[in-house]
Amino acid sequence: MAYLNLKAKPNAPHKEKFLTAEPVMPNEQRNLNLIIGELRMAEQKHPEFCKGMATTTAENVKKYLSHCRKEKAERGTCDWILAEEIYEAFEAYQNGNLQQCLVELAQCGAVILRMMEMVAGEIKAGDRA
């Protein structure tokens, strides 16, 4: 099993991105399977997903993004890291940069996968069930 990875072309003038296939580790596959399972149930339960990306104004996105970055720097916790990535995706979308929006959404997914791995580690260590 492999996943697609966006990488910058080495000598590209505009940091063009290209896709490469990278191996998926077993723990990553477990988490991806959980996400895909939840996706399939959500698709059944809510066939119409959304009416748009966000209703937050561009001014508020900038304000929230600034706040998230400050809190992330001070606290370094998952909630602020994920919030920062989400608002970066909204900002890119509002600026019409859809490629960057996809990258930011992928970064949200990466943060979520790391959070899942952190929680799975706590479960394995017997910290919580």
The amount of beta strand, in percent, is 5-15%
How many domains is the backbone divided into? 2
Q: End-to-end span in angstroms?
A: 29 Å
Helix count? 4
Oligomer: single chain
Rg over CA atoms:
17 Å
Total count of strands = 2
Provide the residue-averaged pLDDT. Answer: 86
Q: What helical percentage do the residues reach?
A: 55-70%
How are helices and strands ordered from N to C?
Answer: EEHHHH
Describe the structure.
By secondary structure, the chain is mainly alpha-helical. The protein folds into two domains: 49 residues, no CATH class; 74 residues. Helices cover 64% and strands 11% of the residues. The chain contains four helices and two strands, in the order ββαααα. A two-stranded antiparallel ribbon has the order 1-2. A hairpin with an 8-residue loop joins strand 1 and strand 2. Helix 2 packs antiparallel against helix 3 and helix 3 runs antiparallel to helix 4. The radius of gyration is 17 Å and the shape is globular. 11% of the residues are buried. The model has no long low-confidence stretch (mean pLDDT 86).
Topology:
Layout: E1 2-8, E2 17-23, H1 26-45, H2 58-75, H3 78-94, H4 98-124
Antiparallel strand pairs: 1-2
